[in-house]
Amino acid sequence: MSTSEPDATPREPAVVLLSGGLDSATCAAIARRAGHDIYALTIDYNQRHRVELDCARALAKSYGARRQVELPVDLSCFGGSALTGHFEVPKDRPADEMSCGIPVTYVPARNTVFLSLALAWAEVLGARHIYIGVNALDYSGYPDCRPEFIEAFETMAAKATRLGVEGKWRLKVHTPLITMTKAEIIRTGLALGIDYAHTWSCYDPTLEGLHCGRCDSCLLRKKGFREAGVPDPTRYALP
Amino acid sequence: MSTSEPDATPREPAVVLLSGGLDSATCAAIARRAGHDIYALTIDYNQRHRVELDCARALAKSYGARRQVELPVDLSCFGGSALTGHFEVPKDRPADEMSCGIPVTYVPARNTVFLSLALAWAEVLGARHIYIGVNALDYSGYPDCRPEFIEAFETMAAKATRLGVEGKWRLKVHTPLITMTKAEIIRTGLALGIDYAHTWSCYDPTLEGLHCGRCDSCLLRKKGFREAGVPDPTRYALP
Lengths: 239, 239
Hints:
Two copies of one chain form a homodimer. By secondary structure, chain A is of the alpha/beta class. Chain A is built from eight helices and five strands, in the order βαβαβααβααβαα. Chain A has a five-stranded parallel beta sheet with strand order 3-2-1-4-5, sandwiched between helices. In chain A, helix 1 (22-33) packs across helix 7 and helix 7 packs across helix 8. The A-B interface holds A 69, 71-75, 77-80, 102, 106-113, 115-117, 119-121, 123-124, 143-144, 146, 148-149, 152-153, 155-162, 164-165 and B 69, 71-75, 77-80, 102, 106-113, 115-117, 119-121, 123-124, 143-144, 146, 148-149, 152-153, 155-162, 164-165.
């Protein structure tokens, strides 16, 4: 990112959910470009892919975030998802199978939990903006990546919060990636100066810290770079 | 509680938010009486009043809960509330002042966060019922204790979850205490066999582990027992 240092001028604050993945990195760059001070919220939900958290830290710094909170919330205590170690991460699935139904990598109510935590921070900051890099296209099977869900969350937030009830505040949940293809996301991020080598997508990294190259998330990442027609900087175990 | 042992017959599961306080203890007893298997969710949000967590453990056991999850979610990382140590807990406030406006003990978006976590567990369990002991009367200043908020949360939940989207599931958030006075809550709980000596209300316990007797929560608790016309088993520093 070109904007690597926090500057002195206060801008309107935005809480940005920053996982360290390709999507949230792009989303944060968009929030920064929109002129917000970034308050980066990274949830450590005991995911398999812990290296994502290192990427999130580096990204928060590169965006000149005013603050990063890395909050442990162990969603694995409830079970129910391949991403928290309860099933095998599926590999080598053809694209048509990936886009059909809700995959086992779905973490129950994850975005509801993440947005609720972002809401808590936004209310303390008096911030009216939350950014989340959800995408309805590549993850058509995730119910909490759809615009209907986001709107219902905003409506709920207005009734949940002190500032909302006092009429001083209307939360906007920004989802700039929601209708983009992965290739469009990558092109947008490159134009904003992101180095995608410092982002993480793989659900099931190798012991050597490489992207597996075979899980749904790796397959979508590869396809994205291919379709964007740009070099893929990712180190895959299976290219 | 009379129902102290888990029995073998599976009943319809309910996720019950169990803080260890007087209200949530009563709410859990009502859920149990309604014939549910109890999955007790206790959030350790780094509150000042840690002794509440010990009460929650004892209560979960006494209700024969199928499982208790005690989940650390450090809401104090965002700041903004007396309950997480960011302001002084107010003392000796007259009742009219307590019922006016939103108090500093309000934790931003707390019930949204708690219900979201309950939703995550409910979805994994396939449970259609969540119980939360919110009360709109004694806590008129808390926006997330009002029926409008609860309804908006249910609507959002239907769009947030796999089971909701598939039409197999409609979450019900039960708020049996929402319109009760503290005295009514206490009478209801006593009729269900609760020993309120094993519940905790104080926002600012003494070093000796007594209820301070002076914070809003202690004052409401005392008033509740007085108005219910029953002995108050609580050990207060200032009776």
